[in-house]
Amino acid sequence: MEGLGAAASAIAIVELAAKIASLCLEYSSAVKNARSDIERVRKHIESLKTTADGAQKLLQGPHGARLETSQKLRKALADTYSQLGDVAAKLETKLPTGRREKVLVYMGLRALKWPFESKDVDKIIANLQRNQDSFAAALQIDQAIEILDIHSKIDLTMLPSASRAAFDSHVKEHNARCHRGTRTKLLHQIREWANDAQAESVFWLNGMAGTGKSTISRTVAASFAEDGLLGASFFFKRGEGDRGKAGLVFPTIARQLVHKIPALVPSIRKAIDTDPDVSKKILRDQFEKLILQPLNSIYRTTAIVIVIDALDECDGDEDVKTIIALLAQAKVVHSVCLRIFITSRPELPIRLGFKDVQGKYQGLALHQIPEKVVEQDISTFLASELARIKDEYSGQVPLDWPGKDNIRTLAQMAVPLFIFAATVCRFVDDKGRSNPAKRLKKVLEYRKATRNSTLDKLDATYLPVLDQLTSGRTDQDRAEVLAEFRNVVGPIVLLAQPLSVRSLARLLDVEPEDVNALLNSLHSVLDIPSVDDAPVRLFHLSFRDFLVDPAKRTKNDFWIDEAKYHKTLAERCIQLMGQCLKQDICGLKVPGKPRSEVNQQTINANLSPAVQYACQYWVHHLKESKHNIEDDDFVHTFLTSHLLHWFEALSLLGRLSDGVLFIRTLLHAAQPDITSNFIEFLKDAEKFIHSHGSIMERAPLQIYGSALVFSPTLSKVKEQQWKKKLLFIKSAVGIKDRWGTHQQTLKGHSDNVMAVVFSPDGKTLASGSADKTIRLWDMATGTHQQTLEGHSDYVWAVAFSPDGKTLASGSADKTIRLWDTATGTHQQTLEGHSNDVRAVAFSPDGKTLASGSADKTIRLWDTATGTHQQTLEGHSDYVMAVAFSPDGKTLASGSSDMTIRLWDTATGTHQQTLEGHSSYIWAVAFSPDGKTLASGSADMTIRLWDTATGTHQQTLEGHSDDVRAVAFSPDGKTLASGSADKTIRLWDTATGTHQQTLEGHSDYVMAVAFSPDGKTLASGSADMTIRLWDTATGTHQQTLEGHSDYVRAVAAVAFSPDGNSGLDASRNLRPVGNVLFVDGEWITRGEMNLLWLPPDYRATCTSVYDHTLVLGHSSGQVTFFQIDST
């Protein structure tokens, strides 16, 4: 051992510790009178093993050689190994050796004796702990030195965070924590869980609204912070902007972890340096790269606790389930004891999320705590708070106030709602109102309402506060007060993010004084700041629940109609935007000025908080109002005048990427009238932002430049908004007439895209590539969701299960992998093929997976267990494609032996062979009714076959190279084929006639897939891209025709040898006339970028005559601009 290096010594200790732990378990099952000592030794050995394992990883890591203090710990490591060796030897000598002895021990006929007395165990643990502390301290010293040595400064601006999400943020400065003497047993239980190295990594505390979960979370976070154990906290809050967004949870936690644990700096900085946009990636990538990997790179003997409160207030049910699934992986962090404490209501998405990770968390429901314990805790709180109030109102209340009976009654009214007790105390303590005794008496009058359900308890919580607004008033006055309450408080409880009194008044078009007058009576239920610029917040979400509960519509005078007031908010947002939005609202003046160069102060000065709110949330309020928009209503009128102004504001606010989602939300809210002018306008607006979103986001004023100019001449948006174009553009000729079939290009793979497939719901696209990865894409936005890594060679094929929860991938590494599509985690690997897996397909019921391989076989697998069911043999060469019939009874396979085989899936028997192709079969696909099979071949044709008889129906010809992919549309009327000739062709399946050709890829088309609604076709290519096509329009991009003389003249001028009119096309910078330049992707004047050129309009040659700028393009297209050069 002395001769070993520190890393090797640590490995030896890990192996020996694992052996001793196993021996302890053997003794524990056979020895009854020493189980406590056995368990003590086992737990300490497990802890030592974890420490040594973490040390070994660090010492063998990239910076291991620099950990000088740790490398010198050979004596401590040698002593530890020697002590472990002695323990192991004594344990082994007492174990039965022969078969007969083992049987006697097993039958209880011979006792097994534990070889250590309790005092021996104490000594063993003390000696081991001393050495463990020595090399743990050395590692921490080395880590500190390492951090100082690598410029420990980290650019935290690269880690965006949700403001006010931490438990100790200023906004929560006055929020309550558990009162002394309350929740003692629960807090002790949580403390024990955090310190137990063998406990589950996640603790889920759940309870209904108002039961005190957030108060417990704040107390837990504060307690662990005092002990130096708190790593980070995130307190979700619906309606608080970023605090409700799943996308900022892990960057926020990572940012806090860096502050608390500087040893994480190198790993987190590496993650940011490797991928500066890591904080914008999918949740799984964020969690792995910003949390798991950094924590696994450090060593720490004490626990690191992360507190996440109110997970039910996170937007997006699927995101909530993903967060739970990811947090459940905390156990994989071995070098530190990571503990995650979560609170939430037991809402369905959360229950489902925890059901999926059963056995990986420790759970407790607050309603499981005995009612008497809860009542006593509430009594303790009430007694203390009311005593404080009594002291503050000395002389104004009786000496025996409030009295034990009243406290007991209040506690009984409250159980299990701590929010009741907190609200009552704020109400009784409300300064400037009647004295506390009278207010307490008012509360006690509601005791009858608390005898039934929890909802009735909410009546008793909030009605004492609200009834005072109308008490003693005439019917007319009462009606006016209730209307005023609903008009002000209704919006407050429905806001997507809180606003200040000033901004709220601006949004509602009322005077701030009128808002304050009403709110002055509501300090018990609303957190109302003393200054007008700070936001008004609800003390608790249960106040909102109470006001909008549909069951209380006829029972609660203060009831708020959610739909009605959401519509009111939508209307007020639109009115405010209509008054304030305008072109170049921030006075940028320079058409190409980047958004990144516009400071936040400029934006805030020109877009007030109320206007910013309106721009971001009016669509949300419209959606929640259930209002059906239609031609010429207030929404249509606003967008006709201000669509581009709204897009500009979204760009300035960094929210333009949400614009597509906003437009789609509006489309869903439109009356389903296919002739509606407004629907056509919205559809065009969606294409407008899809096509130009990149430059609109980077340079806001190009909305009025590049986006307008290069939209098709028949674009509804262009027709209505053309007058808003930038002034230096007089006209543009040579722009295509219609939006092309090509909708979007998805880039990210670093090698050929071999396969594409839509999820059953059409929301996700999966692509498999020769770069060994699978990528998942959001079809709503075209954004990359996650990358699935694990294969060691080409990914040839991908397939979704019918329920969309599982993705299968087949690879040249000879394996099939199954993935959880929600989290991206690898579920299992199916092994058995002896060559590339070229094709995979799920049966319609999802119970069977078929795989075709270059080993000439098809294998069928049980998807539940991953077991191999049967092998189908018969092909004499590679199996290139497999497909199940819609009824699941038949499997088709295509092979490079030039045949298609049909198989009975129940028995695995070969039914028939389809012959006719003269080269490889690359692809097969069943029609939706199962009656027709299509096959694509290297003979450049597609063949259609009758599946009942096996007869050849027709041959589709037109491609000039291998047909690599075929797919039927969902209605079976159209067949798409992708070819090595770089095109996709669409065919009428009834007649076999060619409908259209989709061009745009620059290399082989390897895969095609229709979306479930048939409106979109995806194609994957060897050019490393996926393209999305609109199947409805099918129009080519326009090419100017009929001007051959003029085009020749332009070309001649552009390339004239005197060089005056243009430059060689190989150069990026081309002067045009005396003032304009074409600089790659921009038309510029001097140092000023004027007009961004989309890829299809980049010039290969240029010319100018008077004020006409002419661009010639590689496609043969020519574009003319009338430019004001002044």
UniProtKB/TrEMBL annotation:
Phylogenetic classification of the source organism: Eukaryota, Fungi, Dikarya, Ascomycota, Pezizomycotina
Gene3D superfamilies, A to Z: P-loop containing nucleotide triphosphate hydrolases, YVTN repeat-like/Quinoprotein amine dehydrogenase
Keywords: Coiled coil, Repeat, WD repeat
Organism: Lasiosphaeria hispida
Matching CDD domains: WD40
Residue stretches in coiled coil: 31-58
Origin superkingdom: Eukaryota
Protein name per the record: NACHT domain-containing protein
Location of the NACHT domain: 201-346
Pfam family, one: Beta-prop_WDR3_1st
WD repeat intervals: 746-787, 788-829, 830-871, 872-913, 914-955, 956-997, 998-1039
